[in-house]
Amino acid sequence: MEQKGFTVWFTGLSGAGKTTIADAIEPLLRERGITKLEKLDGDVVRTHLSKGLGFSKEDRDTNIRRIGWVAEVLTRNGVCVLASAISPYREIRDEVKAGVGNFVEVYVSCSIEELTRRDVKGLYEKAIKGEIKNFTGVSDPYEAPTNADVVVDSEKEDLAESVAKVMAKLEGLGYVPAAVRG
Amino acid sequence: MEQKGFTVWFTGLSGAGKTTIADAIEPLLRERGITKLEKLDGDVVRTHLSKGLGFSKEDRDTNIRRIGWVAEVLTRNGVCVLASAISPYREIRDEVKAGVGNFVEVYVSCSIEELTRRDVKGLYEKAIKGEIKNFTGVSDPYEAPTNADVVVDSEKEDLAESVAKVMAKLEGLGYVPAAVRG
Predict the structure, then answer these.
(1) Which terminus of chain A faces fewer neighbouring Cβ atoms within 10 Å, N or C?
(2) CB contacts, 8 Å: A69 with chain B
(3) A115-132 pLDDT per residue, tens
(4) For testing the chain B interface, which of A46, A61, A73, A76 should be mutated: the one with the most B CBs within 10 Å?
(5) Which of A36, A49, A69 sits opposite B78 (nearest CB)?
(6) Rounded Cα–Cα distance for residues A138 and A156 (Å)
(7) A177: which residues sit within 8 A by CB, 6+ positions away?
(8) Euclidean distance between the first and final Cα of chain A, in Å?
(9) What is the Cα–Cα distance from A130 to B75, expressed in whole angstroms?
């Protein structure tokens, strides 16, 4: 069976677990025969496509549109894309969704309190002190999805639970064949 | 048979015929079963990935590196890429080649005299008058490939001849199955 292209788009605050979930899903997809697979990580893509862009609304939008365009090109050529990017603005996410077509929006939810407590990279502390400007969720807006295809809550669920929800949705949508049990 | 990803990179001066040859090859490749196929045109990609970049050496290099990165991602996922971009600097083309791996460099050659005579978009006249700055071949350098996989000369060959040369090379390299004759 020829693989159908689709994009799983993980949106949520910095540190919520977008990339962690994408990394955990990748081997499961490969095991189901999804061998054409590309992860697009917001930070990594910045170095390749958006060096020089900052964090103003306009620059953020441009960065997301670029990731979206690459996801679109890959998707229409039969590739599965796992994209992780804060992508704070609903309008731009919807624009990317319209361009890509086979688009599954996954909202990785987590409260600011929990993220500040975890603060893996020490960014929230700096943002709260004002040492980092335009930090999403602290000093810059994040527009949560109102009709995401999957909502996972990394504060209340463990990783396995979040991964299972996403996999179930991808099966339900027919992008991924169901697991074969022996 | 699963399609193998590869990139055909057309380099040459503006108006030499890079996009024309890529457009002519596309249906021939599709007929041979190369259905995962994406054309990346330097000018089109500029609007998606490099808006705001100019024509300084640095900005040109950045633009070519971005096209190269997208070609790399597509190629490693089994897609055939037909990329057309002036890509004037040998060093950057070689860098892209190293990143992509399955890379076929096609030099579309044409003399400045002939291009000035054709001048389809009126750009050479403006460049010669100094109305356009940094115009490759007139007021900006073009480093011709020294060991391209295919050299076509759009001044001396007709389109069919150039297309046949590229197709023969792609067959020879095993990227495209030979035509089946009835």
Answers:
(1) C
(2) 48-49
(3) 999 998 899 999 999 999
(4) A73
(5) A36
(6) 21
(7) A1, A32, A33, A171
(8) 20
(9) 43
